[in-house]
Write a structure and sequence with these properties.
heterodimer; A: alpha+beta; Ribosomal Protein S5, domain 2; Arc Repressor Mutant, subunit A; 3-stranded antiparallel sheet; 26 helices; 57% helix; elongated; B: mainly alpha; Recoverin, domain 1; 2 domains; two-stranded antiparallel ribbon; 2 strands; 58% helix; DCN1-like_PONY (chain B)
Chain lengths: 676, 218
């Protein structure tokens, strides 16, 4: 009985002590405590934003030793936190982000071991699981590449059986078939051609960064060669004969092979994340275009071999796709999310799409569509699409005729399509939900433009999460080259001078419209809070072909209403960019806010389970305990993680009583007994 | 468990010999369903009317308690016959005469607890462990009226709740009603091991009670 008495006195004292400790830890900078802390922002108990501050700071620091020092501080502060589980849940998400973008294996390992040393296994199990997943993904990717090679060879064999190989390769020109022919053939078939063409191009490029693929694939077995043969077949025929032969051949080829043939041309990679370790992510039921779907299926096939029980769900939100699009004869690589890629790919089949149709084709809600499409419509540097409001009396035909003829003379076509391997395309759905989260990065890039796009890489090394930063870098870069330091001058002057120096001057009549549009652009950009708001440059460039009507469309677009079901989306034919590699920001904020709610729920559920476990464990060993003693033991057991609310303990205890694991003494309700 | 079923029949043992079993059977047949060996809702209503008892009054519940009925709004033949034998009544008149004394027996603390816990089992759905909140809201005024000083506050407090009342909470509410002072000052949340619902009730009621007291003082 003596220990009961001692315990009764203990809880308040203990709690006070912990509180005091956490106070010290909480305000290191305000109390000016120690020089080692001076660069660290103050950390409050359970404070989510502060945590991210720290990690951002940390990431900016580049030398490893100082990083380690920061981590040590972080771990030290962590020890003082009362609600470690809340903090930890947030941190785990940041850790996941770090792993997804770029990570330093050594650093992370030492971080994990530091926490393990101080806090025990509870926190590190998941972290090390995540790190291992990430490390294992390299091996897995290699295996996948190997698997792909097999599939490619198989695919080529099947093709060879059907097609007569031609050997006179015409590689110099026309790797992208002219627009007319694409339009003529249309759809998948056309895409196949383009893909094959580009994969060929990839094979001929020395710059593509697929070092690992290179290592595995013997040069003579390079899959691209198989495709190049096919391509040559196509090129050496006249339009008509080619179409005929193609039709004939295609019919005879095994459908299954055909289905994957295009997908095999895309550099596709997936990270498989174990759902046990990784924080959960909302999975959207996005309907992928057949091509991307085939890529996914390829990976699923690979991943599920011999392992029927595995379950993959793809996390599109974390995936990256590189798309190549040609505007005014210039090819651009767009680094977009899977959602955005799917949206853009819709425009290969038709020039104008109603919002409601796009929404249905992609199986997204209007809200989701708005969310993902916004950067493509509004962001200055990547306004690839335009939105046309559907006013009652304005016909779409007039609009089309205004723009089209000019454009057609300038360029072959506007087509956007994923391109196989060369620099950077990563088309990366991720699977998370059940057993795995995978992150596939196929990395097509441009044929002609690949070297340039790889140059651009230096700004955008980061993965999907870093797009905002990368974007800013890009805009700064663009400014210093094109505009110079006077970016803050009046919009009108600036855009005009810009246009005059760099581009052919627009027809005089459109100049006012440009100015207006530039201003307009500012408004809309600040509205979506892209951070990198530059009222200049691109909008003026885009402005070349814009009529005043268009400007009005733009203006209304800036309204909060933004987009309605009946509106029409079409490609912005006047799109231009200084950079060949255009990183489209994946609008993240919404996802982030959703994450915090789910993370709170996680913590609550997690805590309840932990209290249950501790309660049962204690009752099982002690058999009989007074309420106060039990309370103390539970608090003591959980203190390293968090201080449980006494009412939480009671609630869980009541549940156990209800489920007849524990019962109250008949005469003394304050005495609990374990019901074995 | 606190319920002591032996106690139920304690006082009636002596009268067992004097009852006419056939008469009780006839009585049962008069009210039972045609197809089944049970008195169900309709028959019960007729029975209580014949006894001059409001079916919504506590007396009907006490009667069911004495019969040790297991299912709400149902008396089986054995329950009815055994119950009537225990009560020493073989006719409607005798039953009518016995009923007031049954109510009085609730003044005994132990008997009341037994009755109180019976009310829980009798009113909760068989497949559930706890008492649905809507049922609880109707039941508490019926059985705790006059025994729990803050019954009105308690019912008001339950208005905002959605979760069913567990047996543990229900049982401890009686202790709460008996042992806690009117001003709730001797309620010890830390060491009292009271269910969370009662903790919350005290949070809810304390300011209200203090307010009332101030008003009284004025």
């Amino acid at each position: 009985m003596w220990d009961t008495k001692r315990d009764e006195a203990a809880p308040t004292a203990k709690r006070r002590k912990l509180n005091a400790d956490s106070d010290v830890g909480a305000k290191p900078s305000t109390s000016g405590a120690g020089t080692s802390l001076k660069t660290l922002p103050p950390v409050e108990v359970g404070s989510v934003p502060r945590d991210s501050d720290i990690s951002i700071d940390i990431e900016r620091e580049n030398t490893e030793s100082s990083l380690l020092q920061y981590l040590a501080e972080l771990v030290r502060l962590f020890m003082y936190l009362e609600e470690k589980d809340k903090f930890f849940d947030t941190h785990r998400r940041l850790f996941a982000k770090r792993l997804m973008s770029h990570h330093d294996e050594h650093l992370e390992t030492s971080f994990i071991s530091m926490i393990k040393e101080q806090m025990g296994q509870f926190y590190t199990q998941r972290l090390s699981g995540m790190l291992q997943d990430k490390l294992a993904s390299n091996t897995m990717q290699k295996a996948f590449q190997k698997y792909l090679v097999e599939r490619r060879v198989e695919c080529r064999k099947r093709k060879e059986e059907v097609l007569v190989p031609f050997t006179d390769g015409i590689l110099d020109e026309d790797t992208i078939p002219p627009a007319d022919s694409i339009l003529e053939r249309g759809g998948l078939e056309g895409m196949a051609d383009r893909l094959l063409g580009t994969s060929l191009a990839r094979a001929t490029l020395p710059t593509h960064s697929s070092a690992d693929t290179g290592a595995i694939v013997p040069s003579d077995a390079n899959p691209a060669i198989g495709f190049s043969m096919l391509l040559n077949v196509a090129n050496s025929h006249t339009e008509k004969g080619r179409a005929e032969q193609r039709e004939r051949n295609v019919k005879s080829i095994d459908e299954n092979i055909l289905k994957f043939e295009e997908a095999l041309g895309i550099d596709f990679n997936a990270h498989v994340l174990n759902a046990l370790h990784w924080p959960s992510v909302e999975v959207a039921k996005l309907r992928l275009p057949p091509l991307l779907l085939a890529c996914q299926e390829l990976f699923s096939d690979f991943y599920m071999r011999d392992k029927e029980t595995r379950k993959l769900s793809w996390i599109h939100a974390l995936s990256v796709v590189n798309l190549v699009g040609t505007f005014s004869g210039m090819g651009y690589t767009f680094v977009v999310s899977t959602f955005q890629a799917c949206i853009l790919l819709l425009f290969n089949d038709s020039d104008r799409i109603r919002v409601v149709d796009a929404r249905k084709m992609l199986n997204l809600s209007l809200e989701q569509l708005c969310h993902h499409i916004k950067p493509l419509l509004v962001s200055r540097k990547c306004r690839v699409l335009r939105l046309e409001r559907r006013p009652a009396n304005e016909t779409t035909e007039t609009f089309a005729t205004v723009n089209r003829p000019n454009e057609k003379s300038k360029m072959n076509s506007t087509n956007i399509y994923p391109i196989p391997n060369s620099g950077r395309l990563s088309f990366a759905p991720q699977v998370m939900q059940c057993q795995a989260v995978s992150d596939d990065s196929g990395r097509p890039a441009t044929d002609v433009l690949a070297p340039k796009s790889s140059e651009a890489n230096t700004y955008h090394e980061g993965g999907p999460e870093r797009t905002a930063d990368g974007d800013r870098a890009q805009s700064t870069e663009a400014r210093s080259i094109a505009i110079g330091p006077d970016a803050n001058q009046g919009d009108g002057n600036e855009s005009e001078s810009f246009v005059n120096t760099t581009h052919p001057a627009p027809p005089g009549a459109t100049a006012p419209a440009q100015v207006q549009q530039a201003k307009e652009g500012t408004a809309s950009a600040s509205e979506i809070n892209t951070g990198s708001v530059e009222p200049r440059g691109e909008s003026a460039k885009e402005g070349e072909s814009d009529s005043p009507k268009n400007t009005q469309t733009e203006r209304s677009q800036a309204d909060a209403r933004f987009m309605q079901e009946g509106d029409i989306l079409h490609i912005n034919l006047g799109f231009k960019s200084r950079l060949h590699r255009v990183v489209v920001p994946a609008s993240i904020p919404k996802v982030a806010s959703a994450n915090t709610t789910t993370s709170k729920k996680h913590v609550v559920v997690d805590r309840s389970t932990r209290v249950d476990a501790v309660l049962v464990k204690i009752m099982k060993t002690k058999k009989e305990l007074t309420h106060a003693a039990l309370n103390n033991l539970v608090v003591e057991a959980l203190a390293p993680t968090f201080l449980p609310d006494p009412r939480l303990i009671k609630k869980r205890l009541e549940r156990l009583i209800e489920q007849e694991y524990v019962e109250r003494d008949k005469d003394d309700p304050r005495l609990y007994r374990y019901a074995s | 468990m606190r319920r002591n079923s032996n106690r139920l029949s304690r006082s009636q043992d002596g009268s067992r010999n004097h009852v006419n079993l056939t008469a009780i059977d006839d009585l049962f047949n008069r009210f039972k369903e045609a197809a089944e060996e049970k008195i169900e809702a309709e028959g019960m209503q007729a029975l209580f009317e014949a006894l001059d008892v409001d079916p919504l009054d506590i007396t009907s519940l006490v009667f069911a308690w004495k019969l040790r009925a297991k299912t709400p709004f149902e008396f089986s033949r054995s329950e009815f016959v055994d119950g009537c034998v225990n009560l020493g009544a073989d006719s409607l008149e005798k039953l009518k005469a016995v009923l007031p004394s049954l109510k009085e027996s609730l003044n005994n603390d132990d008997d009341f607890r037994s009755f109180y816990m019976f009310a829980f089992d009798y009113n909760k759905p068989i497949e559930q462990r706890s008492l649905p909140i809507e049922v609880a809201r109707q039941l508490f005024p019926l059985i705790l009226g006059g025994r729990f000083a803050h019954i009105d506050l308690w019912i008001e407090f339950l208005e905002g709740k959605k979760h069913a009342i567990s047996r543990d909470t229900y049982s401890l509410l009686l202790d709460f009603a008996r042992n806690i002072d009117y001003d709730l000052k001797n309620f010890d949340e830390e060491n009292g091991a009271w269910p969370v619902l009662l903790d919350e009730f005290v949070d809810f009621a304390k300011p209200r009670i203090a307010q009332d007291k101030d008003r009284m003082d004025e």
